Amino acid sequence: MRFIDRILKPSTRAFVREARKTPGFSFFDFLHGYVYSRWPYLYIGISTGRHPAAPWFALLAGWFNRLTARTRKAQTSTADISYADTYHGKAVPLATAEQLVHIHQNIDVPDLEQVIPYKRARSIILRNPDHIVVLDCPCRLSREHPCPPLDVCLIVGEPFASFAHEHHPQRSRQITSDEAVAILRAEDQRGHVHHAFFKDAMLGRFYAICNCCKCCCGAMQAQRNGTPMLASSGYVSVVDAALCLGCGDCNPYCQFEALSLTDDLNRVDYDKCMGCGVCVDKCEQDALSLVRDPAKGVPLEVCSLMSEAIHLEDSDLASRA
């Protein structure tokens, strides 16, 4: 056995193998991905400004960005790559989140440009998608008074799930698809938003479903501060005036503060609404519903993804015949 194989954990070696097969994935991308995955609590604590060393790391990050700028520009036709282009989440309704943890076949859809409206990190390439690990949320743990529970971040597929569990055995556990659904439903009942997360340093792919609250989530904090890290689901919440009693019971559940009472009628702030659907189940009068809105982007449709993956695989086999 080579010396390098003896000092690297199996999941790290798997990450290296996948990195080598990923087009345009540089050594700096790998280094970034390793640091992010190996020390997520430090990484998120610094990113949200909660860690004492945050100012120093901000200087280091600036130097690193300048160092890797040429590589990043070479990988895209657009020179302007923002932080949000490299690290972002897509709001998904509960039903979509459940579908994402119930995939039992590999999927290879390399570029979802219309669905994920960013310049980088917009692929869904799932290997062993039934390998799921729940991780204590780094965002919640970075807060002085985090929202319970902590174990709500779902790491989906390989090499990410094994890496998280192998490097953080005290803060993670392997779970089944049904257990993942139970976590999603419980978080939905608490009013927390499901986001499918993508990151360039995580092989430019989807790798996790985070269940987010506005008081703890770093991405929601960044969104409020002008960094558009979160994309709409492609839907918008609509109020049926004939059914709405104007009670306002659903309003506190909206993590994006898009609901408000005006003249005894609930109203949706169109610009703020991300179409997560959390409010819909909180209305006992069924006065709220999600409506497809092309101006809000293209939904992440899991069944369509699977069909596209099968079509691409069939096309590839046909070309080889």
Q: What brief labels describe this structure?
A:
single chain; 321 residues; alpha+beta; Alpha-Beta Plaits; 8-stranded mixed β-sheet; two-stranded antiparallel sheet; 12 helices; 37% helix; globular
Would you kindly provide a written description of the structure presented here, covering whatever features stand out?
With 321 residues, this protein is α+β, with helices and mostly antiparallel strands. It has 2 domains: 3-231 and 305-320, no CATH class; 235-295, Alpha-Beta Plaits (2-Layer Sandwich), CATH 3.30.70.20. The chain has 12 helices and 12 strands. The strands form 3 sheets. Strands 1, 2, 3, 4, 5, 6, 7 and 8 form an 8-stranded mixed sheet that branches. The radius of gyration is 20 Å and the shape is globular. It starts with a helix and ends with a helix. The model has no long low-confidence stretch (mean pLDDT 89).
